[in-house]
Amino acid sequence: MKKRLTQVIVSILLVETVLFGAPIQAGLAVSSSSDNNQADVAPIFFDVPYSYWAWEWIETLYRNGVTNGCSTNPPMYCPEDAVTRAQMAVFLERGVHGSDYQPPAVGSSTGFNDVSTGYWAAAWIKQLAADGITLGCGNNNYCPEELVTRAQMAIFLLRAKHGAGYTPPAVGGSTGFNDLSTDYWAAAWIKQLAAEAITSGCGSGNYCPDNNVTRAEMAVFLVRTFNLLDLEGRLFLDMNGSGLRDKATFNYDPERLADPRQPLQPDLAEVVDDYVSAHPDIKDGDLITIEEPGLSGYTVCAETDCAQTDPQGNFSLPIKSGTSGAWIQIADPNAGTPTLAMRYINIWNSAVTVPSYTQDVDTATMAKIAIITNCDADAEAQVCKQDADTLMVRDQYWNDTKIIPVGDGISIKLGADNNIGLMQGFLTLPFVSEYSISVSNYFDVDPTSCPSGSEPHSCPNIRDWQGNTKTYDQHTGIDFLASTGIPIIAAAPGEVLSVGYDDASGNYAIVKVNDSLVLQYNHMSEVNVTEGEIVERGTQIGLVGSTGNSSRPHLHFELRINDQPTDTFRYIVNLSLLPDPFAGSEVSYWTTDNFPQFSHINSANK
């Protein structure tokens, strides 16, 4: 079922963002034909058109050198022909040893009474026996011209995959197939073949064990057994942080788009230019909705093979170790250009639903948000007024993603889907991959919530990620705990207004983002910027420390609008649409271009 997230964000750079996402479908599947430009390329085999059910499996087998078909002039595969035991020997040996494999010379004997040394597949059959994959068909014969059944194929495939000594688990109380009893001679082998996702049967819950295996079915069996599928995927610019390649919506802002401090990534710039050209009447503030662009010119490597992504961000690599959970390396062509370099890899994990909840709001505050409609009047509104002093937040659908810092040549392990989102946005944290960052003190400048002088304080509206009440009063920023020496990176581009030291802030830096907005970083052990310096998103501001009025190493991060301290979370998220167990937690880490996600910060795998 399609998952949807609609959320209102008030951020420094983007006024509104509307996100739409769909969960990645689990399981290994061949790539969609829509990206293969099939009309421009003839199929490899005359008798296997693109409309044939197994065309890509057969062509994958061909590309891996396991088969050249049944005829070369014209090239034919004979997909409906049954597979003989002699043909199967060649298929399996190439699958086990690789496309360039040639068996040893047959010598003076094949080891089987019915296979002469001059038989066309004699060496292959002898090697199949030497590898322990077959013992023949009985009475010291191999029966090379007999056809292979689906039951026999289960044993051949599993022995070829796991080795001569392999024995499948006991069959148990059920085989999983309607036409296969638990006492069938190959029941355990067939059940294990299904358990390893090499087969799903012949349809209608059956396996058809005594049916002969066709050459088309053989292609599917071999590709799945030996993981011969090419590794195909796409790199894309994950503008909304969903981890999925979906649509991104933002306001048209010519000044922002032309800001030299943060130039648009080239692929995004091209898509935006195309959109503006196609909409000549577009005005400042109009919404732009685009498909998140693919990233071209990136180098993607798997094992020893590398390829560059095409203009749509697609890549395709041969990989013999299998595509499920494969390790790949990504090299960013803009790694040396801070304003264009990608900073994070964002991989989708799962969909998350935040159930509907209500929140009490005092009358004065409710009067200020007249834009919020009554729940009875608008069934689609994400936030609505349930009554005079109660807001309702309806079910929200989020994407749980894994965020990994990206660097030149970083290795990552893929999941079930090979679409990989890269992000330019920065977390406002002193972030390196080896450390876990946590929020210790939250923003609270409301003296009515926590009366000064009262111990312990009572702050019902300030909670940690588990929903526990916090007790911080007159705190004008957010504190992030981290070890001394962790780099602090700039949350947004701007000019360094001042750097210095005072007894409260310790070593600090203040960055002017625009005429009304400034950011301040406190308690640093070392300041790495100078007054008047222009910083970009991701520029290292300094190192975490415990200078000034500080009891332990942390970053005090402060956001001020017109010199008024402002809650970072409430500034970026117009209304706190997360219930208390989530509000102010790691899931709400602020990014300047990417929406806060339920994201796990993972260490980079080198």
Word description of this protein:
By secondary structure, the chain is an alpha+beta fold. The chain folds into four domains: 4-23 and 232-356 and 396-423, no CATH class; 42-225, no CATH class; 357-394, no CATH class; 438-590, Distorted Sandwich (Glucose Permease (Domain IIA)), CATH 2.70.70. 15% of the residues lie in helices and 25% in strands. It has ten helices and 32 strands. Strands 19, 22, 24, 25, 26, 28, 30 and 31 form an eight-stranded antiparallel β-sheet that branches. Strands 10-5-18-12-16-32 form a six-stranded mixed β-sheet, with no helix packed on it. Strands 1-2-6-7 form a four-stranded antiparallel β-sheet, covered by helices on one side. Helix 1 crosses helix 6 (215-225) and helix 2 (85-97) crosses helix 3 (122-130).
Could you give a short description of this structure?
This protein is of the alpha+beta class. It is 15% helix and 25% strand. The chain folds into 4 domains: 4-23 and 232-356 and 396-423, no CATH class; 42-225, no CATH class; 357-394, no CATH class; 438-590, Glucose Permease (Domain IIA) (Distorted Sandwich), CATH 2.70.70.10.
